[in-house]
Design brief:
Layout: H1 3-26, H2 42-69, H3 74-97, H4 108-141, H5 157-166, E1 178-183, E2 186-189, H6 195-218, H7 224-243, H8 261-274, H9 276-279, E3 297-298, H10 303-313, H11 329-341, E4 356-357, H12 367-380
Antiparallel strand pairs: 1-2, 3-4
Amino acid sequence: MKRHTLHRITGSAAAILVAHVMVNAQGTAPADTQAAEGIGSMSVNVALIGLAVFQVIVIMSMSSIMRTLGSPGKFWTEARKRTGMMVLLTSIAVHANAMPANGEHFTTTTLFWWLVVTNVFLAVVMVVQMNLLRFLTKTILNKPEPVVVFDPTVEPWEDRVWRKLTNRVPVERETDILLDHNYDGIRELDNVLPPWWLWLFYGTILWSIVFMANHYVFNIWPDQDVEYKQEMAKAKADVAAYQAQFKNLVNEENVTLLTDAGSIAAGNREFQEYCVACHGTGLEGKEGLGPNLTDAYWKHGGGIKNVFRTIAYGVPEKGMISWKTQLKPIEMQHLASYILSLQGSNPPNAKAPEGDLWKEEGASADTTAVKSDSTKLAAIAP
């Protein structure tokens, strides 16, 4: 293998790695709204791509220097082979694993993490190259390693930093700060407060001034209460945007009343299969079991949302189970719509009204249903 070949392999492999990430950046999914700012934003990704390109340039430059300084000796030949093959194989592995499955695109967040991995990998390659270059330079110059002589009179830098942070008094000078009072042989040292603690204390005072100026005067950044409300509003908007992607994702907040014949027929089938035992074939209700579902009185609220919620979560204390684990959301919507379609139907042998009179907001009361219920109440009165 020629001297130029492995240099080209190293540079080409790093270039392939960066080029692959840049190609995926062009195919980044545009619907990734959660990465509009911060981690995963396109501005951050562009900066990471620029950093990766810079590292590739440095790697190729150091490879050129190493190629110039290198000799056809056995050590340098083996080092170049191992380094070049390591970069090539790793680049191919990363390239193969990074390919999206089934034609899917990278999101900006996924691209961000691949760029981070790419830059870390390139940084490792740079460190390895710098160590090899340092060793090669020493080998060529035949320069011995400098001998470090320990001088006990020179204070190590870490000791100097620690002494400045703590301002402690050496043990041999503790008699200078010894207080006069004595408690059963226990003496007390008059140590000063550590500088690091004082700096922290002064910092809290400074921060309190900044905080009060912002909170009461400038309002440059929001307080915790405003931040909480903003984050909750954003989270609610994100959930709504996510749910909007699924047409059949129905819950008690967005469920609507269905009136088409197909939905009513589907709800009828579900009612006959799951609900007849407690509520009767005509929704008339059964004594000791389920209430009449055709009048205007409801124990747990009427309307499509309340009926859907009651079906989904059940009423365990009354013996009604939760159906959300057995029925799909769209099936519960069909069932609730079928039940409401029979309001005021007055089936034979209907149970007396139970619960409270329900009136939909913005709608007038169902006088027919109320009148029929009143008749039933009069009929069963003693």
